[in-house]
Amino acid sequence: MKQKLLDIADLYIELPKGADRQYAIQKVNLELKQGETLCVVGESGSGKSLTARAIMGLLPQPHVRVSNGEIIFNSEDITKVSYERLRELRGSEISMIFQEPMTALNPVMSIGSQIDEIFRYHVDMSKADRQKRAVELLDDVNLPNPEQIMRAYPHELSGGQRQRAMIAMALALKPQILIADEPTTALDVTTQAQILKLIKDMQKVYNTGVLFITHDFGVVADIADRVMVMQHGIVVESGPVKQVLNNPKHPYTKALISAVPSLSPRKAKTISKEKVLEVQNVCKTFGGGRGLFGFGRPSRQVEALKDVTLDLYNGETLGVVGESGSGKSTLARCIIRLMDTDSGAITIEGTQINMLKRKAMRAWRNKIQMVFQDPFASLNPRIKVGDIIAQGPITQGINREEAIKRARELISIVGLDDKSFDRYPHEFSGGQRQRIGIARSLALKPEILIADEPVSALDVSIQSQILDLLDDIREQMKLSMIFITHDLRVAAQVCDRMAVMQYGEVVEIGKTKDIFAKPQHPYTIDLLSAVPGKDWKSSASRKPTKTKTKSKS
Amino acid sequence: MTRSSKIFKFVLKRLLQGIPIILAIVIINFFLLNLADGDAVDVLAGEAGSATPEYMAELRAKFGLDQPLPVQLMVYLKNVVMLDLGYSFRHDMPVSELIVDRFWPTALLMVSTIILAVGFGILLGLLAAMRLNTWKDAVITVFALITYATPLFWVGLMMIVVFSLNLGWFPTSGMENVAAFYEGWDRVKDIAVHLVLPTITLSLFYLALYTRMMRASMLEQYGQDYVITARAKGLTERRITFVHVLRNALLPVVTMAGVQVGALIGGSVIVESVFAWPGLGMLAFESLFARDLNLLLGIFLLSSALVIVVNLIVDIIYSLLDPRIEVS
Amino acid sequence: MRDFWSRYKRNRSAVFGLVVIFLVILMAATADLLYAFDPFRLAGKPLSSPGTNGFLLGSDSLGRDVAAGIVHGAKTSLLIGLVATLVAVFIGILFGALAGYYGGQIDNILMRVTEVFQTIPSFIFAILLVAILKPSIYSVVIAISVVSWPGVARLVRGEFLSLKNREFVQACHTLGMSDLRIMLREILPNCLSPIIVIGSLMIATAILIESGLSFLGLGDPNIMSWGFQIGAGRTMLRSAWWVCTFPGVAILITVLAINLVGEGLNDALNPRLRERN
Hints:
Strand content of chain C: under 5%
Distance between the termini of chain A: 45 Å
Radius of gyration of chain A: 26 Å
Largest sheet of chain A: 6 strands, mixed
Number of strands of chain C: 0
Largest interface: B-C, 54 and 46 residues
Strand order of the largest sheet of chain A: 6-7-8-3-9-10
Shape of chain A: globular
Oligomer: heterotrimer
Number of strands of chain A: 20
Number of helices of chain A: 20
């Protein structure tokens, strides 16, 4: 029988007056045993992170506090222990890793001294021993050249390396509990897969109980023993991972799980032979500039696009898939002329648009439009929604009444209330804002739509609504679409064909179905095998939720 | 690339960047000189009482003032490079010699002011941030607010009223008691006593500034993610404050200290004229009334150069504190 | 707007500052009613202490009424502070917007120029400008503006730099909007809050510079100002402390009030910063 490490009973966390609700979490009960992984799943605002903070005694004092309940760790109630005792427990018995390792590490201290601190404040060891142990730890988490990493500063490491260093720090004193607060959300899929494996491996060695907070059911499927689902601060469902994932009871859990796109590609449409956009041998390099007077070495060069060639056929959705730094966003920005290409040709209807002057390009803006990633950054907070949508046609010389009429139509097409017209963007949720962004891009009646990660900033349940909306619109308006994404699940559900990019090159391009079934390039194979939860839900295909999506998102 | 060579390159680069700035200031200087009514010959003629137009034309030719402006500019540039800043007719001395004479009192005043203002500013800001929303924080904040709003010259005059005229603790003016002919330690002590009021006066405003900045900077850093990490590691609040937060919080304050040096030199004009401190500021004040433009411009040029030098020192300190500097 | 006011009035010292500024403005506006005579004229017995010979705050060595000088000086301080700040903010926005928006060589050149102006010790530069242009209200305004704009330029440049890469600005490019329209209608309104805050604090600094200049005798000789009063009274410090003291208090209170309002504006316009503590 495994020993119980943590027992939370009837925990309430109270928020300060004026917050949107009285309690951040209510009546939360949970248990964690040795060597076990408990995943806490929920969307933003579910209270999952605050629950984790409470266990460490790290709630933002004095406004947010535990108002009721107990957190028993090895027969001690953490909510009642002295500050000194709490400090002893932190880092040695219970430790924590965070979502954003860049900001979670002190930027002006070397990795070595940040690890060293843990030993200095918890155990009595000589300096040489501490050094030796720190190097061993860095080696354990598979960091190359641990001695060098000791002297490095956080900004000198990659995201994955930083998270490894964080894990080394957290496991330095072999804690009984590791709390991981979305530790892989900021990382690329392939790095994520490595970090998840590392956590699993370390857990086996130290027999640690892991409390893993995430919003991603794929990750849950890969690492959890048990799952707890939270919504608005309340635990709606909990149980063994198989039971919750394959046989959810609560409607919210059901909705969340059904919103996760399946990895098996949807049926491809028959693709027309007519090319609407051709990208030929496009190259783009960043950096290499010199100082004002031309002296000094040119700055470091990055080849963002290397000889990229692809075509977009009428009516299809072409996915461009890759990790951060693959050049997929640069490609989108070059096509829409937010950036200039260095060489190559981007052709629409026989005209090479990448060489057009700004003025000459203006007429072509009617043909090609873009939907942006971040719904909070893509709308001007000082301009009313109606005007944001009408801006495009007005800029293109359509008279104001006509433009406003079109804006009103579009507001209803994207499923927003007619009253939205006179409101400012901050009055809308993320999903609704994304609808506004889509309406803006449609106002010019484009033929080609470029969607740059349009759902990656949204919660899963809203993602599927936006994807459905894009699908509807594509059919209604006969659009051809380039869909940029890092998420293979989304790509599988949206794209007819896809291009896989790595380090600025298209390494593989073909029908989505073919690539998923038989990836050719080693990178594509890596990418596919790194998708979290790939063995789960690969058979069950996404329900075609073709209901008209009047949003409450 | 090792860290020390990185820092060396960074400093070298900043040094190179200083050159065009100095050049630009020299050019501005030249144009200001030309903007003024009358030239050196007018001044000379005025000094002499009367001069015939022929004699003045001859003088102009001698000084090269009849040449076209670009030629004059080149001559001026050449002179500045040779450290020839012109001649002060009022003092009957080359400007550069006069300036060097008066530089040291100002340097003394500046150094003591910077130490007092930056040192205590950091200390008070730190204290206020650590005792957030207590009476100590309130007192420090109110003190900083009031001194931040007080004109320097008025503070100086009030200091004289209270500490010199009423209490008689410190002398009202000057740098030393020349009549006493002190030597050795006695002279040092004498100068130190004279230094107290000018230093406090000049420091107060900047003390307030650094206090406010340090407090705000500490509070901002306390809200950063790495502080939560440090707490999660079980470090003491002491260590978190003095090792983690302090070092990050110092960065903007150090930058600010560099930016404010120029303002400090400006402030010294006022403070030196209030306390008759025989430095560059006092010299500037005198030349203002004597309409000794050559001298005024010379002081202006030197003080600009001083700002660049101090900024370079600040850059070096900054690069030691922050590992993230890149030679880009 | 109502939101803004409710956030602003939560900061009690900011409300206090606003009341004080209102009173100073009232005093300046009614100067010709309160003391309907030239503040330079001889009004009675020289060096009368406060409360004697009909002088509320005493008189100076030439028999000028200190209180009348303060009331009339308020006009000068406020006017110069406001006008010089407006000019400086305008130049700063122009430089900062162009540099931040276009980047590259334009940015490089404009920022080098800004750097030169930032390196020059501002007060000495102001002294030089006024000395060369001859002291007058115009030369004082010009000098203060010329030394104050670089701060605004840097701020605006920073805002433009970060906003121009925001997706809403990129969206405007994809719609084919002109640069001028993007700068004025899309970006500028989004950096008004920090500009308002820095502008309000600059008024305070401008008043301090003006008082320093007139203290050194570089003010407009025909216009009464607080700095001039203090400068004129400093030789009488031993016998007539009030001549220097009261105008100084006037400067202190006015500048303090403006700073309080500036901070209040900052808290009300940038609510995020407030939540941190």
